[in-house]
Amino acid sequence: MTKPLVAILSGAGISTDSGIPDYRGPNGLWRRDPEAEKLVTYEYYMGDPEIRRRSWQMRRENRTLKAEPNVAHRAIVDLERSGVPLRVLTQNVDGLHQLAGLPARKVLELHGTAREVVCTNCHARGPMEDALARVETGEEDPPCLECGGILKSATVMFGERLDPMVLGEAVAIAKACQVFIAVGTTLQVQPAAGLAGVAGDHGARLIIVNAEPTPYDDRADEVIREPIGTGLPEFLHRLSSERT
Ligand code: ZN
Description:
single chain; alpha/beta; Rossmann fold; SIR2/SIRT2 'Small Domain'; 3-stranded antiparallel β-sheet; 9 strands; about 15% strand; elongated; binds zinc ion
């Protein structure tokens, strides 16, 4: 018998214990500061070299790339290593699930990754670290080394569409899973909210681990209000012992 598939949707809340604040969420830092929001808005970024210069400076100072995974990221790795089939759908761009030890093929990054850059012209990709090293040595707006095009973080900026392939795969996982755990996300924005709904509609057990109420709490089989650092490991431990 195949073991039931567990899908874990993670949002900013899972990374706050790693020292990464919520940048992108509806009440995130970028949303509260129109000038900062411009630095990560596609139209402004593409249209204005000065915005790009400031955007690279902001990325230099950003703590995301220096952050370490925390106990919640590691608890998910433990569950995967115990043989439970699982997939992580993440709204985060910090790469901490993989850094904690989850195989990259198990992680679907809905908003891309801040650990890479991509050329807006030829779509060549490379490490963010290398681009930031170029900024460090005086290139204020480092162009693509392949074609000279405008380089950007490989994240989905405001004003950009999510990758339809990634989104399609996320929906398929939400439909197929038997357990759907939403952790550290308010489930107020798409696609996160939609994915929880799809999973619920297709009969998954819906678990919500979040400090604040979400619009799906009424539909959830279990709502865990405890801090993620204790609530998630406890729940996952319970889940894996259910299956033995
Ligand atoms: Zn290029």
